[in-house]
Amino acid sequence: MFFGIGFSVYLLFNAYVYVRLLRLLNSKRQKSLFTVVYLLLASSFPATEFLSHSDVPSWLNPVLFYGYLSLPYLLYLFLLLLLHDILQGINRISKLLPVQTLRSGRARALTLTLLLLLPAIAVMAGTFRNTNLKVNEFRVEVPRRSSAMNILTIAVASDFHLREFTDLGLIRAFADQVNALNVDLVLIPGDILEGDRQNGRVDEFAREFRRIRSRYGLFGSPGNHESHGRDHALAFFKNSGIIMLQDSVVCIDGAFSLIGRKDSRSQGRKPIGELANTVPDSLPILVLDHKPTDLENIAASGADVVVCGHTHNGQLWPLNLVVDRIYDVSWGYRQIRTLHAFVTSGVQVWGPPVRTAGDSEIMLITATLK
Predict the structure, then answer these.
(1) pLDDT (tens digit, 9 = 90+) per residue, 112-128?
(2) At 306, is the secondary structure helix, strand, or coil?
(3) For residue range 321-357, what is the model confidence (pLDDT) as tens digits?
(4) 48 closest CA partner among 66, 33, 31
(5) Is residue 222 a contact partner of residue 266, using CB atoms and an 8 Å limit?
(6) CB 317 within 8 A of CB 126
(7) In the sheet that 218-221 helps form, which strands lie side by side, from edge to edge?
(8) SS3 353
């Protein structure tokens, strides 16, 4: 049902863009050529998404990369056209500019050029932003209880969505930056792999994760993309040095406890209260939960810190405004009673490798134990 609604919306906004742009062209030849080009452009994203879920030869990876770019390009073309039509409507009422001037061949050519060029600039800027990894810092205080620690530094990163055309340089830069932070702990709350893709590069990615150094190691929890994974995902986690926690609890060096939850769509996921009851009351409790959808229950369980991902902070403006209404915390930090809740926008994004909302980020959390 969700796919049907999404595809219907996609067809509708493409029909609007096609009809409106067609009116800016003059000759039949121009309109015929435009029709062919636009059909190819509009079909690029559905075709790319279909092929990316299949086993395709490696030479197609660049084609898939650019095919994904068509979605944000069409989104911003649609929004720009919508703005253009709204301004035209205002002009008809206010009569600031003569209608004949706006309908002249030169004005229409300039309008068409800007409409096609500005979305391309937005996509290029978003592609750069998606590979420009940032460190965003947060400081909180948590009860020490019986822990011998005074300060716990945590690097949080999620949503790598590792696939065939993932830039290895980005993963290498991630490992370098985490090592430079010299943290006690690295937490990765889900969507590390594109689980249903046949990924022949997992060994390359695992090699970079193995380079990461922290006092207590790397811990992860599964996301919705790992939930439909293949056997190669299990081998990747083992080879990368990431200890996966799936509705399981570990006590680290008598200093704090970690709870890693299954994804919310997984069958048989245990309630957070049941997991928290197995943790010694004398230690601070940190929780990994991919989706930030159970924060009130996590707060009620007595946990001190929860780290989540999944939202990508909307990924593409203005979708971040919608995501912000869906989740209590769509990005950043919020205190819910005694719980410190963190939601990262992720290292990478889903689908189109473009980010015009939020950062490609590592969260650095400094927790002072008092």
Answers:
(1) 999 999 999 999 999 99
(2) strand
(3) 999 999 999 999 999 999 999 999 999 998 899 999 9
(4) 66
(5) yes
(6) no
(7) 133-142, 360-369, 151-156, 185-189, 218-221, 242-244
(8) coil
DSSP secondary structure of 205-261: HHHHHHT---SS-EEEE--TTGGG--HHHHHHHHHHTEEE-SSEEEEETTTEEEEEP
Closest CA to 74 of 131, 26, 9: 9
Provide the 10 A C-beta neighbour count for residue 296. Answer: 13
Domain covering 134-369: architecture: 4-Layer Sandwich (3.60)
Q: What is the mean pLDDT of residues 306-314?
A: 97
What pTM was estimated for this model as a whole? 0.90
Residue whose token pair is 């010694």: 280
Question: What span, in angstroms and rounded, lies between the C-alpha atoms of 316 and 347?
Answer: 15
The Cα–Cα gap between 291 and 295 comes to: 9
Ranges of each domain in the chain: 2-129, 134-369
